[in-house]
From TrEMBL:
Its main location: membrane. This is EamA family transporter. The lineage of its organism: Bacteria, Pseudomonadati, Pseudomonadota, Alphaproteobacteria, Rhodobacterales. InterPro entries: AA-Vitamin_Transporters, EamA_dom, EmrE-like. One of its GO terms (cellular component) is membrane. The chain crosses the membrane at residues 39-58, 70-91, 97-115, 152-172, 184-203, 215-236, 248-265, 271-288. It comes from the Bacteria. It comes from Stagnihabitans tardus. Pfam families: EamA.
Length: 293
């Protein structure tokens, strides 16, 4: 007898994709107001400021052991520091968003290759077909939409390490992650992120923040939408489902990010990009569909 999936988990993929994808053009708007590490440090610190009073009032349970807390911290480090931090450094070094997106788009394939060994999850031929279609579709969107450039090898090295950071986070969470109270998990993960990015921002960046209503709106979205809701949904989906299928959702991020960039940044999606978006959607449906049995 199979248990019925909760409604919030069924809706989680759509909500996650919308929140995560919109964050890319919104973060690009933020870069015009502050330097990358400054944005990340401010983002993580604001999350902690919001969660600390809730933790004092609600007193959520702490991890049951040091190892459980350590596992939460490792996942947070891989996502908040390795993935986000190095992607932002790549942008700062002159690497275009298209170049970063193409490299990071390899994440579902990398997860599929490593999942049988590190998460004990075999990848079916249908899932592989979906992953391949998703990669082709997402790559089509990126190539039709973004300029591909890089200023030397530093940006590409950062992007490659960021790819392994997000891949490692997904596999680590699947293998070692256990359900924690969301306030507790977020406090640990964003404390790790702030502990690394805040010193980096202070040591390497000196440009002042351009405070106005637009930057305040950007930070509000990055804190509430990206940092609190999207990451919590992603980790919950990884724990509840097969990691390769959840990772396939990332193929829809470049198309949806391009779609959000249209009204937010005035960057229209080319006709070839629309075709790529449809192909990526078909690939994700194939890779994410649960086998009946």
């Amino acid at each position: 007898m199979t248990s019925k999936r909760p409604l919030w988990l069924a809706a989680a993929p759509v909500l996650f994709l919308l929140l995560w994808s919109a964050g890319f053009p919104i973060a690009k708007i933020g870069i015009a107001h502050a330097e990358p590490m400054t944005i990340l440090a401010l983002r993580y610190t604001l999350v902690l400021v919001l969660l600390a009073p809730l933790a004092l009032i609600l007193r959520p349970p702490l991890p049951k052991s040091f190892r459980a807390g350590f596992d939460v911290a490792v996942t947070g480090f891989l996502i908040q520091v390795v993935y986000f931090g190095l992607c932002y450094l790549a942008f700062k070094s002159g690497t275009s968003s298209g170049t970063v997106a193409i490299v990071v788009c390899l994440q579902p394939i990398l997860v599929g290759l490593l999942a049988p060994r590190f998460a004990g999850e075999p990848v079916s031929p249908r899932t592989w077909a979906g992953l391949a279609l998703g990669l082709i579709g997402a790559g089509t969107v990126i190539l039709s939409h973004a300029e591909l450039k890089t200023q030397g090898p530093f940006g590409l090295i950062c992007t490659a390490i960021a790819l392994f950071g997000m891949t490692g986070a997904a596999l680590y969470e699947k293998r070692f992650g256990v359900t924690q109270h969301p306030i507790t998990a977020n406090l640990i993960q964003y404390a790790v992120g702030a502990a690394v990015t805040l010193p980096l921002a202070l040591w390497t960046e000196s440009a002042p923040i351009s405070w106005d209503w637009e930057f305040i709106a950007v930070m509000a979205y990055l804190v509430l939408g990206n940092s609190l809701l999207a990451i919590s949904l992603l980790l919950a989906m990884i724990r509840a489902g097969e990691v390769a299928r959840v990772s396939a959702l990332f193929y829809l991020v470049p198309p949806l990010a391009a779609l959000f960039a249209w009204p937010l940044l005035g960057e229209a999606l080319a006709p070839l990009g629309w075709a790529g978006m449809g192909l990526a959607a078909v690939g994700v449906m194939l890779a994410s569909r649960r086998a009946r049995g």
